[in-house]
Each structure stands twice: as structure tokens, then as C-alpha cells.
Amino acid sequence: MVFKKKKLANGLDLIGEVNKSAKSAAVGFFVRTGSRDETKQINGVSHFLEHMLFKGTENLDAFEVNKAFDGTGAQFNAFTSEENTVYYAAVLPEYVIEVTKLWIELMRPALRDEDFNIEKNVIKEEIAMYKDTPSFDVMDRCRSLHFGGHPCGNSVLGGEKSIEDLTVEQMRNYFVTRYAPDNMIFTCAGNFDWGQICSTLETFCLKWQGQAVARKLEHFEGSKKKERIEKSNLACEHICLISPCVSFRDPRRFAAALLSVIVGDNVGSRFFWELVDKALAEVATMQYSPMDGTGALYSYIRCSGKNVSKVLGIVGDIFRSLSHEGITKDELRKAKNKVLSALVIKNELPMGRLLDLGFNWIYLKQYHTIEDDVKAVKAVTVDGVNSLIEQFNPGDFTQFSIGPACNESGQH
Amino acid sequence: MVFKKKKLANGLDLIGEVNKSAKSAAVGFFVRTGSRDETKQINGVSHFLEHMLFKGTENLDAFEVNKAFDGTGAQFNAFTSEENTVYYAAVLPEYVIEVTKLWIELMRPALRDEDFNIEKNVIKEEIAMYKDTPSFDVMDRCRSLHFGGHPCGNSVLGGEKSIEDLTVEQMRNYFVTRYAPDNMIFTCAGNFDWGQICSTLETFCLKWQGQAVARKLEHFEGSKKKERIEKSNLACEHICLISPCVSFRDPRRFAAALLSVIVGDNVGSRFFWELVDKALAEVATMQYSPMDGTGALYSYIRCSGKNVSKVLGIVGDIFRSLSHEGITKDELRKAKNKVLSALVIKNELPMGRLLDLGFNWIYLKQYHTIEDDVKAVKAVTVDGVNSLIEQFNPGDFTQFSIGPACNESGQH
Known about the structure:
CATH topology of the largest domain in chain A: Cytochrome Bc1 Complex, Chain A, domain 1
Structural class of chain A: alpha+beta
Radius of gyration of chain A: 22 Å
Order of helices and strands of chain A: EEEHHEEHHHHHEHEEHHEEHHHHHE
Oligomer: homodimer
Largest interface: A-B, 61 and 61 residues
Largest sheet of chain A: 6 strands, mixed
Number of helices of chain A: 15
Number of strands of chain A: 11
Helix content of chain A: 40-55%
Number of domains of chain A: 2
Shape of chain A: globular
Strand content of chain A: 15-25%
Strand order of the largest sheet of chain A: 1-2-6-3-5-4
Distance between the termini of chain A: 54 Å
CATH architecture of the largest domain in chain A: 2-Layer Sandwich
């Protein structure tokens, strides 16, 4: 594994990690923009824009874009989060330059009126579909409740109204500011030739104009509000809990990740033993989401309506015990084992490695080898996790629930 | 890559592919049993049994099982389909033997009454949850409509009633027949020591009793029925189409896989250009599902209620054009490119390789290198795909839809 980096004159960062024994390579553009960089008026524009990039450029229409991807046999996709828009592809080594050129071309989209109007319907259908998916809907609503007016509470998909009202000019303006080269990085991992990558990027990207882009970074404590809505036809109660935690730049993020595994890993966690194993909840998990300048612990619990009070009581007990007695040495040892093996296995595939490389650069401007991250996980102590719990009590959460209509005994 | 195999005296097949340059290893038991091996009375028992294996053995309770997995840091899981129950784990090389011993232990579960009764609630909640998920529900109902009385139409999860009525004795009887060593294989892939694997399996599995197990193998043409149900609160129409196709043992399965990519790959397919790109459907995909003695093409389409007639009209046109004019050379070339790169990239990770190794052995009793499968894909011709379409017309399908109540214009 050899790390490579280069900054182009317009601010575009190129980074890569070469692994000549890999059978494939992964490449991607990471754009430092997402729903938190939107105003309420244009909420959803980042995700909509991600769709529009596949509609073509001055030189290619959507049909030709797809034909070009087909020609490389790439496994490609894109995703938009609160903070990032990522475009990636995994290919056989002989197609790395071809697929890189294609992504470069797509990063300067035509944003045609007619494509915009057609794609608006796709976005609206996607919003409608997620409304049919309570496990997604509850997370989205809880995030908005938790962050209140803070832009991190913006929905990634946007709302029906903001999408309906969005104009193509608003999208074009957003694009120019947010897809500036100094707000993007190009990353590659696996079996590729760094010299060829650099000369390809230099040839085609140097004409992109840099411009300083800002993002407000502030910590946010969360609203700690509790809300519930009812939906007929639902069989289960879906519950989301969010509490504030450290940001991506805080070295305690490894402790936070271990804490989420101890509390809410799929198996073997406190949630698992107290709720899932006892058949009180079907799912009960916690995940740590490190962000830019802030962070959060998200819990998702699904259970039958009759178990809601009992489940929430037990969750309260788990959080109380964490803040009074802390975690144990044995819990930490097991969580480290899980996190370490997941880390190594994920990074074995160029596509998995690409994401870790890219995010470490986006958030930290640092290269971490897998061994660096292994060391950081190993170095976390029981005291480290316990003092994190003391500062960020997971029991002090925002809560949103979506469930069936209350039954006669009104036990919710 | 070096292939290894060994058959134990009781019929248990061990197979492995050693790749010393991998950073991890994957191991798994493949049990040749699933919902198609159930009667209506015990429908759901395979999947329920899969859950029960994690509840422990004579020597270990569920808590100890989880602790043992935690000790290896394994990424482990299991899944049950119509035909197979698969238990797998990916670990760092130093934990391969430990996690193998653990799976061996779990393959002879205690099936305790109290665990059975508690887990029954978990299964019931899982069934309830999937009822809240129309994209899943529609596939399940369509499969049952398509296969009618044929056991391949059995739901993997089972029904509320069959699960409610199931007794632990019925499960124990099912276990003894279906988890016999001559109905299972042990597979490993990646960085491991074959000699150690063999001696571990010999030490602990030879006491398992073999017994001849039967499965009825017959082709089935499908009912070709059409049904629709309404659910209030749904925003979209969910449509599943199923048509019969060749089985796993038929060499034309590669042609069938390519056909499904041409018709319904996520991007660049006929469904994509005619339905998704034109914003008429949000999702429109086709997948080929090769089975034991039979096979099927599954399409899933999600669109807004107002587009249903138009979407189904276009789907009809696509299938008619396929059967009149066939596929083109260019379509086949692109589909091969996609399938080949997906094949190589998936098999790069030991976990991905494990599944291909295991299924090739389960269905064919054959070892195929990645290169063998690459060659088979490359060898498919336009005529090969077209004659497959002639024999198995995808336009002659069973259809199930779940959607919102019809609007006033009654346009569904």
C-alpha cells in the first residue's frame, strides 16, 4: 500500500492508495456538500443535483452517459448525505482511466431545463416512497426534531414543497458554489497507475474555477423533545432516539464508535440482550454518526405496540446504568474485537477502502493507514468511554415515534 | 487460488479455496433446506430453525454463543431462502479455527422449549414488519400466486397461523432430517490452513449421523394469474411479475442472467430507458433466480398510482419486442461487461467468494474458478439468449400488485 497525493493549482485534492495485488480499483469524487449546506427554500437540492449529474453534460446526453458506463462494466453509484455527495465506481484495472474520465466529464453537468423538470417527478416519487417506509421516515423526522433550526436537521431528500418550488436557476447557482474544485476531492484505491491518474485529472480539471466555500461549524446540543405520530395500517412501533456526541475531528470518535457497539450492536450489545434476545423488540440498534463540528448517537427500535412502555423503560434503565456505572472492561474488549475485524475486512476491498480514504481526507485532511486506525481503536480505554458518557449522556435524548393507533388501554 | 475438497465418512462435504494473499477468511455451513422443503403445516420452520441455532447447544446458552462470536470479532450472520439455509462468518485469519469450531457446535442445537416459545414472538414480529414493507410483501405474495400448490411458492417466513401452531417437536423432527451431514456442506475461502480445517471438521463432525434426504425436483410453468390488493396509506403502486425460466443446473443460466440485465438492470436496461429514465416508474428491475430443478425471472416495479396503466402497457411492449425481435448484439456486449466486472469484484472478497463456491457445490457438485464463470459468460451468444426467450417468454407472467385505493377515474 503506497499513499499518493497532489493538489492541483485550482485547489482540487487528488489522493490515492495503490495496492498492486488488488484485482480491481475504485475511484470517486467526494464533494463537500449536502443537506446541511442548504437553506429551507432549496432543501433537497444537493440530492436532486446528484441525480442531475447522470443526465449528462454539454457533450453527452443521459443515454450516452449510461452507454459510457456500460462500456467500462463499472459498478457505479452516488449518494448524498447531510454533509457529502459522493460519486464512485469500482472497475477492473484496465478501465480505471476510462471511468475516471467519465466522472470528470459528469462533474460539469449541463443541468438542462427539460431534464430538470422530468427528474423533479422522480424526486417526488422517491419522497413519497420513503413516506411508505416508517423505519426511514422516523429517522428523518427525529433528526429534524433533534436539530430544530440547525441546518443538520434538514432532510436529505427535501420536502414536497421545497422540491416543487425549486427552480433550475437555484440549482445552477448552488452547483457553482458547492462543486468548486477546492470543495471536492478525487480519491482512488486498489490497482491503478498514479501517474496516469494525475495526468488525466490535470488535463481535464484544471479549467475548473476555484472559489472559497464556507460551512458553518457549530456544536449543537439537540432539542431533547419527544413526539409521536400515528399511522393506520402499521403493525409495529418505530422509535428513533438521538443524543449529541463528538464530531469527526474529535479524537474521541473512536471511543464513541465503541460505545455505540457496546450499547446497540446487532448482536451481543446491551440493547440486544435486554430487548432483542428477550423478544421485546425486533430490532434495537445504536449507531454513531460523526459529522463536521458535531456528532450524534442514533438509536432505532422496532417493537410491537403492546411492548412500547416496557421497551422504553428498559432503554431508560440501560442509559441510567451507563451513566452511573459506566461500561466494563469486558464489554470494551469485545467491542474492540468487532470494530477491528470489521475495519480490516471492509478495507480489504478497494471500494470499502475508497470511502475511508475519502472521508479521512474530507474531514481531517489526513491520510490514515488501516494500521493507524487499528492503533487508535486499540488505544481507547474504559475511562475514555466513561468520561465520554459523562459529557454526552446518551440518556438525554430527542425521541420520535411512528406507530399504530393507540389501543383502548392507551398504554403508549 | 488452490481448490481443496474432502468428503467425510458420514457424507459431509468440505470444500475450500485458499488465497494466501487475502487479509481475511470466510467460512460457512450451507444446508440444503428451505421453505420449499416444508409442508403447509410447518411453513416457516426452516427460517425459525435458523434463528434457533443462535439460541445455543447442550454446552452453550445463547449468551455464551454471543460471547464466543464476540471473542473472534467475526462478522457473522445467516439467511434462509426457498432452498438453502446458510451460516457464515468473515474473520481475520488468526480466528478461522475458533469460529469454525463455533459453527460446528451450533449446527447441533439444543432447541429448548423455552427458547422456542420466546423466539416464536420474534418470528411473529418479523412477519408483521414485512407486512409493513410493500416491496417485500408484493414479492412474497406474487411468488405464492405464481407457484400455486408447488412448494416453491411457500413463504420463507411462514404465515401467522403456521408459526403460531408450530410445535418444538415438529421443529426437532424437521431438524433431524434436514441437517443430516449428507445434506450440508462446509465451505471456506480466503486465507486459511486447509489441513487445520479438515482435522477440525473430522474431530467434531464425524459423529453426526448421515441419512438420505429427498427433495422433489420438477419444473413448474407458473399460474400466470393476475391479482391486486389495496392498502390505504400507500403512496405508490408496487408490482411484481414472475415468469418461469431455466434451473441452476441448466448451462443456459448464464444466458438467463444476461437477459435479466438487458431487461431490468438498475441502469442502462430496457426497463431503465423506457420507465425510470422517463420518470414513469421510480424503480423497475428484473432479476433471474435460478433454483433447483426450476427457475424464475422476477420483475419489481414501483410507480405512482396514476402511471400504472401506462407503465404496464410499456412493460407489455418491451416483452413483445423481445419475443418478436430478440436482443441486440450491442445489448449483449454491454450486459456481459457489467456481469463480468460484478463477478470479479464480488469474488475479490473472501465473503463474496464463499457464496459462489458454496452455491456451485450445493447445486452442481462442481468447483468453478472465477475464470470458468468468466468464460461461460463470454460464451453466451445473441442466438442463445433469443432461443431462451422463445422457450420462456417473459411476457407470459404471473402478476401481483399492492397499491393505494383506486382513484375516481378508476384508471388501474
